[in-house]
Amino acid sequence: xxxxxxxxxxxxxxxxxxxxxxxxxxxxxxxxxxxxxxxxxxxxxxxxxxxxxxxxxxxxxxxxxxxxxxxxxxxxxxxxxxxxxxxxxxxxxxxxxxxxxxxxxxxxxxxxxxxxxxxxxxxxxxxxxxxxxxxxxxxxxxxxxxxxxxxxxxxxxxxxxxxxxxxxxxxxxxxxxxxxxxxxxxxxxxxxxxxxxxxxxxxxxxxxxxxxxxxxxxxxxxxxxxxxxxxxxxxxxxxxx
Amino acid sequence: xxxxxxxxxxxxxxxxxxxxxxxxxxxxxxxxxxxxxxxxxxxxxxxxxxxxxxxxxxxxxxxxxxxxxxxxxxxxxxxxxxxxxxxxxxxxxxxxxxxxxxxxxxxxxxxxxxxxxxxxxxxxxxxxxxxxxxxxxxxxxxxxxxxxxxxxxxxxxxxxxxxxxxxxxxxxxxxxxxxxxxxxxxxxxxxxxxxxxxxxxxxxxxxxxxxxxxxxxxxxxxxxxxxxxxxxxxxxxxxxx
DNA sequence: GTCATATTTAACCGCCGGTAATAATTTTAC
DNA sequence: GTAAAATTATTACCGGCGGTTAAATATGAC
Lengths: 241, 241
Known about the structure:
Two copies of one chain form a homodimer.
Chain A: H1 2-8, H2 18-56, H3 63-70, H4 74-80, H5 84-111, H6 118-135, H7 137-141, H8 157-183, H9 192-212, H10 223-238
Chain B binds a DNA duplex through helix 2 and helix 4.
């Protein structure tokens, strides 16, 4: 009831009676709450999934376990996520999106001629990768499972499309950056495919390598200096100015 | 019976009667055959496992399927391999061993002062990796599954020890090469951990990246030139002479 | 002939991903 | 305020797979 009074103020000025308006609004308010609750439930499931997957690994983590951790029942999870794979990939998507956005920023700044040297471009790209890795190490590491099971090809259409599309977006942004940097005289005349694969592949490979070695929970101390070595090596070999 | 007559010739000159000798020899001949057959059966299981894992991926490949492909029954497989994981890892071990041996060769040649430049050392290391990858691409790719499931830690003791030990051996050889190359004035004074991780990590990351992209069965044509770029970049950044 | 060894067959267990049917709860309508 | 409708949770289940067991069969050793 309190809701009603409070929210009446927000009615858009349509030609509808006050009663109707109230009811209309009441309805949407409740729907909004439901939407929020639904959203929170999904978030809770994702949180539980992340925790469980990280603690036990993909195969050992069971849906029952995740459901318990999320304090919902298993069928509830299956209402929002078609399969275990899809649930898993739903964890990865925000990370790719984040990388995509940040790499896009670099691309835009490059387009706006805001860079003064190719070295700065490379350093910024590494910063994006590393920050992303540091900020959410566990999720980041799950990318390791990428193809392996051939999981990508068993996802439901929507998830698969979304995943592949976002992945491509990242790669394309990387190539575009390389292209522009060449255009602006920052990089040597090397195929932009090779450049972008070099940067991403080297980063990725080294992060994985460090993760293989015994690491007591926190990030391996060798990682950062090794990445700096790689960064400088790349700058030395492809940057002109 | 033919066996008997034929093999009598090979008796070692012990003080035993002819009959005993014949029987002794017959026994070992048959035992040898059995050993061969056993060995062949194991090889057949490994072949079937490799084929099936490669065709279906780790999770989708079932033990029944592998048994069928190997033309043995499931319990027979379990007589030689304790778990699915162990069977899987048995496929990887020869590859690591191969890499270990070849990297060791480089190390020995370096010790014997047979190298004239640091660039040659780097090129040889890349050659080892690449040949190994090219020679057995599918097995090589299975390394992707490395930690992922945390599988390594669930293997039976023998397999796990063997696997970890061989892996360490490779890494140590890599570091040792870096150390020696520095000693001989080939490489700059950079921590050998960073150098070896750079080389292996970059190679590994780029191979994986290429494998992710659509590749119609054969090796991605971008792979080789990208690896050459990396190779030259590494040479440029850490080699003195 | 009899014991030891190795393989197959066939049935089985437990666990897990996923589902169907049903119950409980909340919203809507009057 | 109450009944209908819709939404969400619960229970119990299915099928498949990793892995095991036990009995049957074959082969060679003595």
